Amino acid sequence: MSSSELQYIVEMSGQRLLPVPNTGNSIPVAKRLQLLRDKAHAWFSVDIHSSETVLIARALRYWEAVIADGHFYLWSELEDTATIFPILPKPSQQSIQRKWLPGTLCSVPDSCNLDVFMDPVQNLIAVAYFFDDTVYISLGALDSDGVHPQAAGERLILSDNSENPPETIAAKLIGLGRHIALWRTLDNSSLDEQWQLQIWDWQHSTTSGSILSGTSDSPLDIRFLGNNQLLVITDNLDIYLIEDMSQMPELLACFLMPVPLMSSMLRSLLPTDDIGHSSQPQIQAQRTMYTSDPTHRLICLTTSSSSTDSSSSIQVFIISTRIFFDLDGMAATPIPWQHWGPSNTRVFQHPYQSQVHISGNRVLQALPVGTRNSEFILHLMDFSPLAATNRRGLGQVVKEPSTIYIGDSTGRSGESLTTSLPYVQVAFLDRKFDSARSELRDMWIDKDRIYILNLDLQPETFPGDRVFVKRPIVKLEVIDV
Q: Which of 128, 360, 382, 419 fits 114 for a cystine, CB–CB 3.0-4.6 Å?
């Protein structure tokens, strides 16, 4: 108790954080300890009414929005446009602001863009595009034209030597650090969906032999768990080692899920912003003072089912990644849910309209209230070990096991699941979001903020009682912690 340095180490470990070395941090350890504790406690007394609003010009059709590293970016496949800009940037923040008009995302004429990935931390934009019966990935800088200065080349090349390669129906780019992965859905005459996954070390080579492929009748998603592990989600959770890009990924473990992940509601979420920020001016320059521990984060899977009364609901699986890094004695044979799931997972059941996002060890949910599901409240949970001991009465500690019932697609049969991963919960009950006036499109949480993306649905009335509904205006609410 007399050593601030030892307390700081315990606090970092309890919050599942790692110090970033060689930052030249001159702040005394006692001060860093206090700032870290104050930030953790602040999450349990968030003023949900003190938000700032950022207006986005207009809602694009069929667009995808993401928030990472304090930036908002979106891409519309239909309109072939993309935008990135900082969200209420702080004075010391390195920010990027740019808009790509139709035809400017890719420099290859007559090409068709399939997906776009942006990483503000590395100033990277990757564009997967289709040209002359082949898929390529171009690597550029967000703040300028031309090839990314750290890229091994202008574009990444897919390894497909067949004479008649199958057609790419859909593509998805995922990136973390030096790795970029492209998942493709391929045209296949069979009933099962055929897919292929290829991974590159984009800073060192434009080619790769790190390829996975297979067929599945369920959705597939992929997430990097760290510098050398990959999570592949099909019907179950497969963990692969990806150290050598010239070789196929090595299967380390297969974790069986208790129910099939076969709903279009499947989402896997991992934090994209690993860097810890602080609102204290004296350490704003130290943007890399700490980072979340990749071996102790959370992933979130959601899937849907029907109940006996024919109502739809979603099941939210909050899973600790610690199980994926503690593989001693485990073979690549499938691991039953009963052997790993109950103690490393907490499963919730919510109405279909609910939404969820995670950052590190915190989970933010938007839950509908009432029978009409026209209003939402925000619900925050903290799964870090020190949340229970240092909560100061600001949240409810939940350590007891909880049980939910999951029905099948018909709602006539199913099974119960009991899980017990401890957490602290706080419900923001003093504010409701009315979905009759605006649509809750999405939400995010990072180290310092909560972001709520709304579509303003209020119609305009003209003389003669004519009602004209314009294209919704996008509003991004930002709540500082």
A: 128
